[in-house]
Amino acid sequence: MKPMSERSPVAIGLAGLALMGLVALAVFFSSDLPLIGGGTGYSAYFTEAAGLQAGNPVRIAGVTVGRVTGVSLAGDRVLVSFKVKNAWVGDRTTLGIDIQTVLGDKYLALDPLGRTAQNPGQTIPAARTTSPYDVTQAFEGVGQDINQINTRELAQSLETIAVTFRNSPPYVHTAIRGLAALSRSIASRDAQITSLLAGTRKVTGQLSSQDSRFKSLLSDGNLLLAELRQRQQAVHALLIGSQQLAVQLTGLVSDDSATLGPALRALSQVTAVLEANQANLDKALSLAGPYYRLLGNALGNGRWFDVYVCGLIPKSYTGGRGPAQGCLPPKSSGGGR
Questions:
Q1: Is 200 exposed, middle or buried (0-12, 13-18, 19+ CB in 10 A)?
Q2: Which of 74, 100, 133 is the last residue of a domain?
Q3: Do 118 and 49 share a structural domain?
Q4: What is the pLDDT of residues 131-149, one digit of tens each?
Q5: 146: number of Cβ within 10 Å
Q6: Which of 76, 110, 133 corresponds to the end of one domain?
Q7: Is a pLDDT exceeding 50 seen at residue 335?
Q8: Does 221 map to a domain?
Q9: Using 50, 70 and 90 to split pLDDT, how confident is the model at 81?
Q10: Domain for residue 309, yes or no?
Q11: What domain range is 78 assigned to?
Q12: Per DSSP, what are the bridge partners of residue 95?
């Protein structure tokens, strides 16, 4: 074999691209591969597709076991092909198209019956399949039919019938007159009925466009309920503990009521005395400020008191200095005191 350095780069590049293409195709069609695919393929006849589409889930007892792979018309019936993986499909298995959400999404429901396995090459007959009745499509059909009816001509026809049968017995004449009145009433409200059906169609379309949000909301609700279920014991223990704490507090208050009562009454008396002497307390606090300021000045120069004693030394010893009258401290004339 030639070494890689001697081979043509173009050939190597083409071979690499071909290999990458094969890998991409294998990944894209991995569900169709026999070993790693989406399971065993089956097919069944239905009398009505009922909105079932390729990609809808296949479920057994609410568990997704596969996907619908195709929906096609086969004569006057509908051929539905699907794949199922890791699930039993018997020779008497019944299938039904059920509604997945309130917005009309469908899924294929399997009821695995039978003692022998279903032959994948044999199509399940329509006798073992059922289709739901789609209310949304029925309303849309009613709206289309009403839009195609000429209500004015219908009213005129019923009035003509009433005139024609005017000589008939009274009860027939009354019935025809009632039909004419009914037709006139329907004709007068034709626009309102059409508007109502158009509004209903808009509402269903809007709900269908918000399908993903409804699914997310329901999924989040399921997660919340599952979490609450897992935390059930903890929530129960918390409620029991809260109840026991309330009982203990009630007992504590009941046991100490003889002590708490006099204490609260004494506290009420103290607050009453303080409230009655509020003016004296305010005055004491206003006088305490200058007092503590002077006391701080006396003690703020060191480990001693700065004190002035008036009249301790006679004036004859001080050279006549001192206050002329009273006990006022002398004022220094220079830098000293």
A1: middle
A2: 133
A3: yes
A4: 776 555 555 555 566 666 6
A5: 14
A6: 133
A7: no
A8: no
A9: very high
A10: no
A11: 38-133
A12: 110, 129
